[in-house]
Amino acid sequence: MRFTDSFIYYEILTLFFVISAAEFFTGLYKSDKWSKNEWYINFAGLFLSSTITRPISFLLSAYVLNYFFPQYYNAFEYVPLWAGIIITCLLEDFTQYWWHRAAHTYTWLWKAHRVHHTAPEMSVFLAGRNSWLYLLLFPSRIVSTVLIFLGFGQAFLIGYFFKAIIGISAHSSIKWDKPLYKIKWLHPVMWVVERTISTPATHHAHHAATDADGIGVVNGNYGNMFFIWDMIFGTAKITREFSEHIGLEDYHEEPWFVQLGYPFFKSKDERSELSH
């Protein structure tokens, strides 16, 4: 069976709706924290990520590759599928780790990524919640296009599916890992799991409003699919606990188009980072 774009995205969409339904039935969206503006951000962010910036990035990168490097098209199609999956997953996610880390280091990029952290609670919707600038410059998308161009198409699609499962579930309010930490015979397994991939516990800590509770790590736990990057580069924090406060500690809500469209749109609230 050959995987295709349409097959993979259908599966990812199904996964997204199943988990979002689980969040709904567990009472997440009944909170008064979810204002109309927050829902505008969620849906507009998903549209921006999947329908606008992703195709633009892919088409531009593919054009450059075909124009300047046609001789390398499918140059690595001989690589076994299993090896291709490992290669594409590691390269694509490694790129995203450093881009994500840079977004918490450089002010201009932080303003483009900030909307990802203004959500009042964890939810699957955070997976696509970023501004146009952050998404359009997203280097891992360029890396993805290069890998597909070089002949890793099938491997990339399969790897991307696994990445979506991990990334979406790590952002979700469904804490699938929490009960597993309490099962004694699973302790060695979970010790390996939480140091290998992103889990709700480690990624929720990244979205905490503060580090003061001893759980949150605002500038750390950057991994999306793999947590190994945080382990290797010293940005990991593992507590197996969940912060009570998610979002930004000093947050003054701006309109959805400001958060997603900065710097074309700026906040009129002088207290906001997006006002200048």
TrEMBL record:
Residues 86-235 form the Fatty acid hydroxylase domain. It is found in: Membrane. The keyword Transmembrane applies. Keywords: Membrane, Transmembrane, Transmembrane helix. Pfam families: FA_hydroxylase. Its main location: membrane. GO terms for biological process: lipid biosynthetic process. The chain crosses the membrane at residues 7-29, 41-69, 81-99, 142-162. GO terms for cellular component: membrane. InterPro entries: Fatty_acid_hydroxylase, Sterol_Desaturase_Related. The keyword Transmembrane helix applies. GO terms for molecular function: iron ion binding; oxidoreductase activity. This is Sterol desaturase/sphingolipid hydroxylase, fatty acid hydroxylase superfamily. It comes from Dyadobacter koreensis. The lineage of its organism: Bacteria, Pseudomonadati, Bacteroidota, Cytophagia, Cytophagales.
